[in-house]
């Protein structure tokens, strides 16, 4: 990259190379804007620390659709009052990771404010392994992969005598561009990497 000048590095690649790409960007003075999912919490922590050393902004966003970012925020608000919750994320059949980064980020945000409870019946038995989905702090996350889908998520809350469902749909990848443009404009003003577009809104 010698002789190449840029302020921002945009990465939408694969989980196998995203960490190294992001570190490379920071090492070379580029503020990374990353839409690839699959980072571990340890990798994100390392990249945040490295970005502070370099005094460079950066962004790793599980989702760049503004509606999806708002859905995550709404879900965190609702989880304070509705601790019984399940997430269903639906994506195209070429997606490489499951559950999606958006579903994991949603669960993380809810776990910060939600009373930690185990929702299932104490004597529940899965007749098919995995039928109840992945367990995240007592919440269940279900992944659907089908052709024709792009990116969709439902967060379903249950309470005594009532329910609440939040849903976001990306029907086309163009839905991500508003968030990508926002990230590119804002990340150069930051002095460390952040995880989640909500930090730049």
TrEMBL record:
PROSITE patterns documented for this protein: DAPB
Cellular component terms (Gene Ontology): cytosol
Dihydrodipicolinate reductase C-terminal domain segment(s): 67-201
Pathway the protein takes part in: Amino-acid biosynthesis; L-lysine biosynthesis via DAP pathway; (S)-tetrahydrodipicolinate from L-aspartate: step 4/4
Record keywords: Amino-acid biosynthesis, Cytoplasm, Diaminopimelate biosynthesis, Lysine biosynthesis, NAD, NADP, Oxidoreductase
Dihydrodipicolinate reductase N-terminal domain: residues covered: 5-64
Keyword Amino-acid biosynthesis: yes
Pfam families: DapB_C, DapB_N
Any one of the GO BP annotations: diaminopimelate biosynthetic process
Domain of life: Bacteria
GO MF annotation, one: 4-hydroxy-tetrahydrodipicolinate reductase
Chemical reaction(s) catalysed: (S)-2,3,4,5-tetrahydrodipicolinate + NAD(+) + H2O = (2S,4S)-4-hydroxy-2,3,4,5-tetrahydrodipicolinate + NADH + H(+); (S)-2,3,4,5-tetrahydrodipicolinate + NADP(+) + H2O = (2S,4S)-4-hydroxy-2,3,4,5-tetrahydrodipicolinate + NADPH + H(+)
EC numbers on record: 1.17.1.8
Family membership: Belongs to the DapB family.
NCBIfam families for this protein: dapB (TIGR00036)
Protein name per the record: 4-hydroxy-tetrahydrodipicolinate reductase
Organism this protein belongs to: Streptococcus oralis
């Amino acid at each position: 990259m010698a002789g190449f000048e840029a302020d921002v590095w945009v990465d939408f690649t694969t989980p196998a190379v995203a960490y190294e790409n992001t570190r490379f960007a920071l090492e070379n003075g580029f503020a990374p804007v990353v839409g690839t999912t699959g980072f571990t919490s340890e990798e994100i922590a390392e990249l945040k620390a490295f970005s502070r050393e370099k005094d460079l902004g950066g962004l790793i966003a599980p989702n760049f659709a503004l509606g999806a970012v708002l859905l995550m925020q709404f879900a965190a608000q609702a989880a304070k009052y509705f601790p019984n919750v399940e997430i269903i994320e639906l994506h195209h059949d070429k997606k490489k990771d499951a559950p999606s980064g958006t579903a994991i980020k949603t669960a993380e945000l809810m776990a910060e404010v939600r009373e930690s409870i185990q929702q299932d019946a104490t004597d529940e038995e899965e007749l098919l392994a995995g039928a109840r989905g992945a367990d995240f702090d007592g919440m269940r996350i279900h992944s659907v992969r089908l052709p024709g889908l792009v990116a969709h998520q439902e967060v379903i809350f249950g309470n005594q005598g009532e329910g609440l469902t939040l849903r976001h749909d990306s029907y086309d990848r163009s839905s991500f561009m508003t968030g990508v443009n926002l990230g590119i404009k804002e990340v150069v003003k930051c002095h460390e990497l952040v995880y989640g577009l909500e930090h730049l809104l």
